[in-house]
């Protein structure tokens, strides 16, 4: 029973991960457009983010939110926008 639940959870994560990445990329592009920012790294960020980072990044609404991100999320941002 536990093995079946683990397999189901793993399968769900594989199905939802691409959807979350797409949503993160879309939100990143929208945020960049609203703030006259650079959306060039949004696809990179969506690919680099794990589930925890995706949830954290999806919650960004202001510059202050960006300053409060985890080091992992800040690192992903830095690698996707190296010239920023």
Task: Indicate the topology.
Layout: H1 2-34, H2 42-48, H3 51-58, H4 63-67, H5 71-80
Helix pairs in contact: 1-2, 1-3, 2-5
Radius of gyration in whole Å, from Cα?
Answer: 15 Å
Distance between the termini: 49 Å
Given helix and strand content, the structural type is: mainly alpha
Task: Please indicate the percent range of residues in DSSP E strands (runs of 2 or more).
Answer: under 5%
Number of individual domains: 1
Q: Which stretches are low in confidence, meaning pLDDT under 50 for 5 or more residues running?
A: 1-17
Number of strands: 0
Largest sheet: none
Q: What is the number of helical segments per DSSP (H or I, 4+ residues)? A: 5
The SSE string, one letter per element, is: HHHHH
Q: Please state the average pLDDT score.
A: 78
Shape: globular
- Give the fraction of residues assigned to helices: over 70%
Oligomeric status of the shown chains? single chain
Sum up the structure in keywords:
mainly alpha, disordered N terminus, globular, 75% helix
Overview in brief:
The chain is an all-alpha fold and about 80 residues long. Helices cover about 75% and strands about 0% of the residues.
Give a structural overview.
It is a single chain. The chain is mainly alpha-helical. The protein has one domain (20-80). Helix content is 75%, strand content 0%. The protein has helices spanning 2-34, 42-48, 51-58, 63-67, 71-80. Helix 1 runs antiparallel to helix 2. The radius of gyration is 15 Å and the shape is globular.
């Amino acid at each position: 029973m536990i093995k079946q639940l683990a397999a189901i959870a793993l399968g769900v994560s594989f199905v939802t991960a691409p959807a979350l990445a797409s949503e993160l990329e879309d939100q990143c592009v929208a945020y960049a457009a609203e703030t006259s920012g650079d959306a060039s790294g949004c696809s990179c960020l969506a690919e680099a983010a794990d589930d925890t980072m995706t949830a954290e990044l999806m919650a960004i609404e202001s510059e202050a939110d960006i300053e409060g991100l985890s080091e992992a999320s800040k690192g992903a941002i830095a690698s996707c926008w190296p010239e920023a």
